[in-house]
Every structure is written in structure tokens, then in C-alpha cells.
Design goal:
The protein is mostly helical and 143 residues long. The chain contains five helices and four strands, in the order H-E-H-E-H-H-H-E-E. InterPro entries: Integrase_cat-core, RNaseH-like_sf, RNaseH_sf.
Length: 143
């Protein structure tokens, strides 16, 4: 979410990127951003039948899963920037693909599998790599 988004832009983004793809969430956890606790956003939550739960800002015990996700994505982006330097933006789709097809302990599977009910097919057959080590985009070494 961009810091410059208005309340209306935030609501539109929620409908476009969350509601239309996944339906109405039962709970939304917020770090008390003023746009999320506004009257408008509160009314939207009531209209959708969603409960907005407020966490204490930067309180990991309350919102630890979100903080962990942010740290994981930062690490993935940092590695991509270091590897691809000037063309890292062109690889953002692959970072998203990788994240969505990685095992997540909180749900016991990859997000792709949770959403579609099956494992994602990819160009690389991961079963064949069970005894191998992936070293980079083009290099696989037998272990």
C-alpha cells in the first residue's frame, strides 16, 4: 500500500486486489494506520461484515505473521537486487511466483496450493531435484 494513497484509493485497491479475487475477509489486521481507522473504512467493514482488528504498532506478538512476511519479502527483494542489479524490476513476477509456491508453516502448504487445491506446475520438476542443489538460475549441482 502506498503512503500517498487516500482512503478512497485504499478502498478501491482492497476491492480490486482482495475482494474480487478472494471474497470478503472475516478479519483484517491493521497497524492503526489512520486510513484504516477512519470513519469511511469502518463503514466499509460494517457493510462487508468484516471485523477490523487493531494491533499495537510494531508489536510482534500481535502482528508477528505480517511482520515475518514483510521480512521474508524484503530478503527476497534484496537477493534479487544483488543478483540482477539494474534489471531487478523485471524479475518481480518471479519473486511473487517463488513466494506463492514456497511452503508456509502457518497454513501447512504453499499459498498457491491452498488457493487452487493442487501443487503448482513449474518448468522445473522439483521431484527430480530431490538429490540436487539449486545454485542459481542456470546452475544445478548434484549433491
Amino acid at each position: 500500500m502506498k503512503d500517498t494513497w487516500s482512503k478512497a484509493e485504499l478502498a478501491k485497491a482492497y476491492v480490486k486486489h482482495v475482494l474480487r479475487l478472494h471474497g470478503v475477509s472475516r478479519d483484517i489486521i491493521s497497524d492503526r494506520d489512520s486510513r484504516c481507522i477512519s470513519h469511511f473504512w469502518g463503514e466499509l467493514q460494517v457493510a462487508l461484515g468484516t471485523q477490523l482488528k487493531m494491533s499495537t504498532t510494531f508489536h510482534l506478538a500481535t502482528d508477528g505473521q505480517t511482520e515475518r512476511t514483510i521480512q521474508t519479502l524484503k530478503d527476497m527483494l534484496r537477493a534479487c537486487v544483488m543478483e540482477f542489479k539494474g534489471s531487478w524490476e523485471d524479475r518481480l513476477d518471479l519473486i511473487e511466483f517463488s513466494y506463492n509456491n514456497s511452503f508456509h508453516a502457518s497454513i501447512g502448504m504453499a499459498p498457491f496450493e491452498a488457493l487452487y487445491g493442487r501443487k503448482c506446475r513449474s518448468p522445473v520438476c522439483w521431484d527430480d531435484l530431490a538429490e540436487s542443489v539449486v545454485l542459481g538460475p542456470q546452475m544445478i549441482e548434484e549433491s
